[in-house]
Amino acid sequence: MMYPVEYQIAAAFLVDFLAGDPRFLPHPVRAIGWLAAATERILRSIRCLHLRIAGVMAVIIVVGGTVALAYAFLLLCGFLHPLLQFTAGILILYFSIASRDLADHAYAVLRPLAVNDIGQARRSVSMIVGRDTSSLDEQGIAQAAVESVAENTVDGVTAPLFYALLFGPVGALAYKAVNTLDSSFGYKNERYLEFGWASARFDDLVNFLPSRLTVPCIAAAAALMRLRYRDVLPSVLSTAGKHTSPNAGYPEAAFAGALGVRFGGPRSYGGVVTDLPYLGIAENRPNIDSIKQAVVLMLLSSGVFLVTGVFLRLVVQAAMLYLM
After folding, report:
1. What are the structural domain ranges in the chain?
2. 152 alpha carbon, distance to own chain's centre
3. Rounded distance between C-alpha atoms, residue 209 and residue 306, angstroms
4. Which of 182, 195, 213, 257 could form a disulfide with 203 if both were Cys (CB 3.0 to 4.6 A apart)?
5. What is the pLDDT of residues 293-314, one digit of tens each?
6. pLDDT tens-digit map of 19-36
7. Is the keyword Cell membrane assigned to this protein (predicted)?
């Protein structure tokens, strides 16, 4: 008996919401990271290989290897029993979604802020952002946390759901492989400018549609929460394109509009101050309440994305059956 992938995705989403990401469990993303690092060492050891070509090969090896292993694993489980294959698919999808983990990290910042423990709040927020946090005040910490939730709504939740709806568990894990490669190699520094070029460009490509499709889901969730849903689209249209990333500006500008706050502005990276363009059409800076609202908005937006995606998938399947 074949089980619809919609059941697997819904079950994985629920399990992630309830269980999160326990640190004691082996995580396939860590294995993908290990594979990426090993592949880099091997390819860099080939002296005659141009770094950009080596980077393209790294993408093919890591993403292709992830797809092949995930597919073989599901085939093996299916050979043993269909129910085992169904459960294995849920497990792969569960590891590909990170809504609860994203919420937990945000609340790890919120809790010390609520009792005015700025030192602990700075340490907690440093775990989820790349900027210098040692001199951030309360509003700076809150802004860093909310921006992280907004940006990672796509990377951690809606993009894996998008590829799961299209290609099942293997598609979701393939996306995580691309995302892990970008996290590993997608830096514009001397070491990775050439080697990481393919990883960064491929990540931009696979996030193009999910980042934009997430915007109306954020607006719908904001309406359900009675936030500033009418400001979501104007905020995105007027400021999303200012972001240095071709995709990250969309969820961030949407969150800024919904929450009535402004993202961007000056921040320090490695002691060097960078003045980033502002996102959002309001002038307010995020605060403690913004963190709470951002977490709920992320979870609700993800739920709207999932329900809408499942509905559209069922409509397409029904239309195909009718035409046949």
Report:
1. 5-323
2. 4
3. 15
4. 182
5. 999 999 999 999 999 999 999 9
6. 888 777 778 899 999 999
7. yes
